[in-house]
Amino acid sequence: MTVFADSSALVGLYGDEPSRTQARQIADLAVSDLARVEVTSALWTKVRTGELASEDAVLLEAWFATDWHGDGQHPPRFAAIPVSPAILERAVALVSRHALRTLDAIQLASAIAAREADPDLDTFLGFDARLNRAAAAEGFAVVS
Description:
Elements: E1 2-5, H1 7-14, H2 20-24, E2 28-32, H3 34-48, H4 54-69, E3 78-81, H5 85-98, H6 102-117, E4 123-125, H7 129-137, E5 141-143
Parallel strand pairs: 1-2, 1-4, 2-3, 4-5
C-alpha cells in the first residue's frame, strides 16, 4: 500500500517527533516535490529555536537527501510528485474549498494527483489538523 505523506509526517522520520515510529513503518511513501524544501526548512527551524543542534541538522539533512535521491545501492525512498501547472491549478480550487494555506493546498493537490496515478493510494499521512480534514473531505483515509 502506498501512502501520501505531507512534509509534517516526513519530518517525523528524521527527528524525535512523536510520529517517527508511525511514519517509519510505511514502506511506500508518495510525497510532493515541496517536501524537499519543507523538510529541510523544518530541520533548520529547529536549529534556530534551539530544539536541534546544528551538527544534528547537518546529519539529518544528509540522511533525508540520501532518502530523497537514493545512494547508488538503494533507490530513492520516496515517489516524488512534481509540482506541475495542473497541480497548481488544482491547488487554487482547494484553497477556496477547504480554506487551506498555499503550501498545504499544493500538498493536497499532489496527493490527489498521486491517487490518480495509483488508485490504491487512498491514505494521507499528516499532522496538520486543517490539512487532514481537507484530505478526508477529498476521500482519503487520514492517519495522524
